[in-house]
Amino acid sequence: MKTKTNSTLPRVFYIPIDRRRFFRSMAIASAGFTLRGYLAEALTISPTVTQGPYYPLANNIPLDKDNDLVQVNDSLTIAAGVVSYVTGRVLDGSGNPIRGALVELWHADREGDYLYSTSATRNPACDPNFAGFGQFLTGASGEFKFRTIKAGLYNGRTRHFHWGVTIPGQLSRITTQTGWNEVALDLNGNKWATQNSNDNVFSTVSDAAQRASMLPDFTAVPGTTTGEEQANWDYVVGQTPVEPTYPNNGGLVVAGAVVAGANGGTPRFKITVPAYKGYSYEVYGNPTLGRLSWSALPFSLTQTGAIDRNIFTATSDGALDLFVDQKAFKGFYYVSFRVPGANTGTPGSGAAGGGPAGAGGPPPGRG
Ligand SMILES: [Fe+2]
Questions:
Q1: Cα-to-centroid distance, 119 and ligand 1 (Å)
Q2: Residue 364 C-alpha to ligand 1 middle, in angstroms?
Q3: Tens of pLDDT, residues 79-95
């Protein structure tokens, strides 16, 4: 899957901070927000709005679906646009953090083009250095984080992110959108025709507190010299998680065994878990990070075969071997499982469903 090498890529932007520093800095930045959900104030449930037509389909979900949308695999060239960080927590209606929630983010690139529409192939108009879609699996704190760019504008909508979350025990993804609490300006600095006040998603949320909760403030990252922005936003779901009870609350922390990789190349890491027929398995981890770092990793079912999937539904009971290229923090991986019938994280499959097309995305013909 890593067919591109760094030397073949144009070096338009060199990443100003490496991932390690990014995640460390975000952990510090988010620390100030950790008490928010415990305050006595009533929480505002994040309104469920259309998923829109641009959630990836089962046959085109990108293998690079980690929580860094600014960088495709380990390319040195990052996406064009204002680098933006979003941190927050998945909370239930009482403010309790939800563990094991699959948080998904997808949005248009700087020019307003999505990664996919209805095609299995990547939209050629979309910035090749923009991942376009990412996932994060929450730990006990419910926290998530993403690095991405400021979403671009397209006709009919103001600037927005699409969010999905699937919480343990629930069979489907719920979706919402967030925007920017500001006047939307196009790339030439002109006022965009569609603002929050007349956008066909934000303006139709009638509850003022709910609407306000969809429009977090983005502020400059302290010390940034490149205009990076950040926001903190909690996804407050109106559902109650039901933890799968077997084998271990929806996930297992498993050590990876080093094995030879394909063609005598770099080693792979073999992860073995007890599998149950019909359960769907995904691997999370991070090359350098500890806490708060469970982002999705693609894998192979064989030691030397192509890294070609990011989810597998077991067809029988027994030990399941999964092989990943990425070395995880201290060699440990988090293998999540979803019970039969749940939204497995594979887009477009059955229960996950799709929202009505149109309201959430560009008009036909616009990627
Ligand atoms: Fe959209």
A1: 16
A2: 12
A3: 999 999 999 999 998 89
